[in-house]
Specification:
With 516 residues, the chain is an alpha+beta fold. It is built from 17 helices and 25 strands. It folds into 5 domains: 111 residues, 3-Layer(aba) Sandwich (Rossmann fold), CATH 3.40.50; 74 residues, Dna Ligase, domain 1 (2-Layer Sandwich), CATH 3.30.1490; 128 residues, D-amino Acid Aminotransferase, Chain A, domain 1 (2-Layer Sandwich); 120 residues, 2-Layer Sandwich (D-amino Acid Aminotransferase, Chain A, domain 1), CATH 3.30.470.20; 44 residues, no CATH class.
Length: 516
Amino acid sequence: MPPEWMEGSPRPFSKVLVANRGEIAVRILRAARESGLVGVAMYSDSDASSLHVEVADEAVRIVGDTLDQTYLNGSAIIEAAKSCEADAIHPGYGFLSERAGFAREVESSGIVWIGPPAEAIETMGDKISARRLMIDSGVPVIPGEEVPVEDGADHLGNLAISAARVGYPLLLKASAGGGGKGMRAVSEPKSLRSEYEAAAREASAAFGDGTVYVERLLRNAKHVEIQVLCDSHGKAVHLNERDCSLQRRYQKVIEEAPSPAVSGSKREEMGQAAVTAAMSVGYVGAGTVEFLLASNGDFYFLEMNTRLQVEHPVTEMTTGVDLVQKQFEVAAGLGIGFEQHEVSQNGHSIEARIYAEDPRSGFLPSTGKLSMWRQPSGPGIRVDSGVREGDEVTIDFDPMLAKLIVHAPNRGAAIRRMDAALSEFVALGVTTNIEFLRNALNHASFRDGSIDTDFLDNSDPRELDGEEYDEGTLVAIAAAAQRLGLGSARNDSGEAVDEHTGHQGDPFRTLRRTFP
């Protein structure tokens, strides 16, 4: 029985299978429960005891040992949905979320697809077709050229000609890709061939398509994206912008809303361009249009992500719009429910991605058992996590453990709140990027808002990482600190204060700062 808010909707549903895992599956399953829907988790043998399975109303096993057999197996997922009588599928992000073929299979099986039309996924998923459409729609694009790829053609010759016309430095980008895969920066002609071969090879491995195109590489630019929401009745709105300029090798590290580089008039200009882009492809649902914002104020279309974004919480925190709930409503055929002028911009929000990785070793993934896991809490603090204490972190899945999101009245307060929350985040058993995040957050270029997309790639990771700690020592001292009440003094406001540093917080902050 569909929940009452779905009464009169053209496409009602009552049970949602989440075709994903980790923190995003947990997020969607909890939203489903709050919406009165039954949430179903899917799992493989390697993550049968994961948090997303625990929080679900029901769970269904996908048989197999590899991703291709489980989370990337569209047919098996649809059969799993049918077996538990799920009448809707939410793909989350990653995995099959941007596979047009999977969306078509879901719809043709009679199950509601909680995502945009397959045609929109297909068009925007190919950077060349998306670029052509944006040009036709009047949305500004970065100067660039497609590289002709025809049987018997001189690919390298065509590439060199296109590169010369676009000019150096340039960027080679996989047509079918995203997430930084199949992308290579080229500063001079002599590096063109090797970088092209590397980009095409990586693109083929990741997306099954080695096609690349060439575009101008903008230095000192900001990465600004606009959240859009569209319904099936022809209405589209934007939910302001997010700044994702702090990134490493084209993968985002810290995101915030609003952008410190975007004024009210620029927000409206970019927002309208994003809405135009979405409507040009017949978009329905929640999506993100990404732009590069040049230092002179010009902005250019990068791509459209036809799914929920990892960083969607900062938009939710500053607008008050639950994007997953809106995805449910739009998929059921309901309208957006508000007008553009009703979209608010309340305070400032920052998100940091907590990874099991070692910044000192080229950010290689770290594995192990989470022997201690303590999430920060308090006013304006949200943690979207897919793990809990005792879980095994393996190489089978993405190394992101959690997303830490804070909200405060202004950017300065949000930075301070994020720093304090990171300092209280305890993850023992694996190496994490927490100290790296704190140092990046506290860098002068981030604090004054001048950071650009090249910052981390031009920095020495060792300068942004903290001291190395002996885990056995930390665990022993942490236990002793808790027993003895170290760091539990109170200030005049009754807030916990670290006796060694004078900072608010708990004993773990003292441990990280004083025990090498």
